[in-house]
Amino acid sequence: METEVAYELLSALRVYKDGRVERLRGTATVPPSLDEKTGVQSKDLAISPDSAVSARLYIPRAALGSPLRLPILVYFHGGRFINYSARSPTYHSYLNTLVAEANVVAVSVDYRRAPEHPLPVAYDDSWIALKWVASHSAGNCPEEWLNSHANLEKVFLAGDSAGANIIHNMSIRLGEEKPEGIEVPGAIMVHPYFWGNEPLPLETTEPEKRSLVERSWNIVRKTDIGCDDPLINPTMDPRLSGLGCNRVLICVAEKDVLRHRGWHYKEVLSKSGWAGVAEVMDAPGEDHAFHLFNPTCDNAVNLMKKMVSFIKEGK
């Protein structure tokens, strides 16, 4: 086995010269289950065998015996497009709680990851997942949880970090070519993975911190324009005003290097001519993805309450 390293990304990834990829975090998985604490049932399924897109579905067990239809939450996990999956213990636990609190059916998307599958593969997989959800609008598709228990007129998008980046790009695509059969009233972007070649006025100028973000992006996306690519710098996208949802919640954290990009996104989006409403929730004293790794702290509890409120206001 080849042991010589071609390149690595601190604490995230090591790629060997023979092409072998070693992920340094987020590799643990847990099976779907009935979570006794929350009463949420989950299962795994293949969305598209042709493209290897899969998902983990969640539903409050009480909903299985009810005629009521629940909103759908389509969730995209984070990890710089490199690490973690829908089967990661961290995301499984968080989705169990979120589904129970918000009383929704959730589809946690397992998109293919870089560097084996560089962008735009993750976007294409995520779009396939959204179209698969929409295909259940007639109630005669293979997934019974969606056929019988989901309200496709209330589809919310949510995700963190790279997942929040995916949400932005799915929202742009929804504005251009919305799949028939679904309505997407709102999107929740938690600590969105946005950046740019030039620092914002209050953003860090430390070369080491900036280069880590830039190297991460260059690994997952082969481009000559770096972090001014509209896929990671939405302010460079002339289609921004066509965002395909009516409400956006942007969650940021005070110590997160990406924090100012979230605020800037809100400002530019609000001035773009987009007809919707955007708001920002800032978590004092917290860093990137704190809510996943310390879900019982006060700020994480407040974030969960805000997300639940955002979804319920959209009902």
UniProtKB/TrEMBL annotation:
Domain of life: Eukaryota
Gene3D superfamilies linked to this entry: alpha/beta hydrolase
Record organism: Rhodamnia argentea
Name listed for the protein in its UniProt record: Probable carboxylesterase 12
Family annotation (Pfam families): Abhydrolase_3
Start and end residues of each Alpha/beta hydrolase fold-3 domain: 73-291
Similarity comment: Belongs to the 'GDXG' lipolytic enzyme family.
SUPFAM superfamilies reported in the protein's UniProt record: alpha/beta-Hydrolases
